[in-house]
Structures are given as C-alpha cells and as structure tokens.
C-alpha cells in the first residue's frame, strides 16, 4: 500500500511540474496583470513595450564660430526653440535637450518619432540652427521604450517656463 501511495505521489508531482522542452524555452512569459493593452497600442509599443525612433546628435557646425552677431544668433535660436515646440506638438519630436559636453563638440539631441533616417533628415532641416550651420546632425536608428512618447505631455505639466 505504501508503494502504491508513493507511486501515486510521484505521478502527481510529475504531472503538476511544467516541463521545459527545447521548443518551449523561447516562449514568452504570461502577460503581467498590470499590462495596459490600450496604452501599449496608443504608444505604438511592441510586445516588449519598445518601439523604433531615430536619434539625432547635434554637433557643433561649421558656421558656429562665424555667426557672431548676437541679434542674428538670437533670432536663429528663437526659431530653433519654436521649431522644437511645433515638432513636439505634432508628436514628431519625442525628446530633445542640450548636452554638457566640455569639449563643445556634441551640443544636443533629438529623438524623433519616425521610422527612417530619411524622415528624420526632413524634420531636422526645419531647424533654423541646422540650416544656419550652427549645428550639424548625426543620425542613428534607436530602439527604446514606447513610454518616451509621453515625455512631452508630462513635461508640459512640470515646466514653469518655456524657452520657446
């Protein structure tokens, strides 16, 4: 009788244990109960909560040192900030900001909500500082969190002033 109970216990334990076969090793884990399918779809997230963007590093351009007229530079940068505001409002510019590069080579960054470098190039050419040669853009495809799409709306809620 004890042997029968032991055999039944072993069979029960084996039948309740998940067996990982080579075919199952790559399977995704069950969905997290906090997963928000509607938000993921709204933000364009893939199954990992990620999406594609194009990142642009703005480097010091060839005309940065030659454009010394303060009024002219002021107008160019006024247009630079206004352009960023427009691109963000149109949900094309996801993230932007200056770098603190001590060498003054890398000046800032854009992350665009576009799929191709070609699309990002079109958007960068709307920037008066790029057009004036103050900045030179360098483009890189970027795969990051789809939550970046919420940065601009959150930023509006926490900024007391706006440079543009």
Task: Report what the structure shows.
The protein is α+β, with helices and mostly antiparallel strands and 164 residues long. The protein has one domain (50-164): 2-Layer Sandwich (Alpha-Beta Plaits), CATH 3.30.70.1060. The protein contains six helices and four strands; from the N terminus they run ααβαββααβα. It has helices at residues 2-16, 37-43, 70-89, 117-124, 128-131, 151-158; strands spanning 50-60, 93-98, 106-112, 135-145. A four-stranded antiparallel sheet has the order 2-3-1-4. The longest helix has 20 residues, at 70-89. Mean pLDDT is 86; it is low at 1-22.
Structural class: alpha+beta
Q: Which CATH architecture is right?
A: 2-Layer Sandwich
Percent of residues in helices: 25-40%
Strand content: 15-25%
Largest sheet: 4 strands, antiparallel
Shape: elongated
How many β-strand runs?
4
Mean pLDDT: 86
Give the CATH H-level superfamily: Dimeric alpha+beta barrel
- The Cα radius of gyration reads 26 Å
Total individual domains: 1
Count of alpha and pi helical runs: 6
CATH topology: Alpha-Beta Plaits
Top-tier CATH class: Alpha Beta
Physical arrangement of strands within the biggest beta sheet = 2-3-1-4
End-to-end Cα distance:
84 Å
The low-pLDDT segments are 1-22
One letter per element, helices H and strands E, the order comes to HHEHEEHHEH
């Amino acid at each position: 009788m004890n042997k029968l109970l032991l055999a039944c216990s072993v069979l029960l334990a084996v039948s309740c244990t998940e067996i990982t076969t080579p075919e199952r090793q790559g399977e995704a884990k069950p969905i997290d109960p906090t997963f928000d399918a509607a938000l993921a779809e709204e933000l364009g997230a893939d199954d990992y909560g990620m999406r594609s963007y194009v990142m642009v590093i703005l480097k010091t351009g060839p005309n940065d040192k030659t454009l010394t007229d303060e009024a002219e530079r002021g107008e160019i940068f006024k247009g630079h900030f206004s352009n960023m505001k427009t691109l963000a409002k149109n949900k094309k510019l996801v993230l932007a900001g200056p770098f603190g590069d001590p060498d003054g080579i890398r000046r800032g960054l854009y992350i665009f909500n576009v799929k191709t470098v070609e699309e990002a190039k079109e958007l960068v050419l709307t920037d008066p500082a790029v057009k004036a040669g103050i900045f030179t853009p360098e483009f890189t495809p970027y795969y990051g969190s789809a939550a970046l799409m919420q940065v601009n709306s959150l930023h509006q809620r926490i900024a007391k002033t706006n440079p543009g």
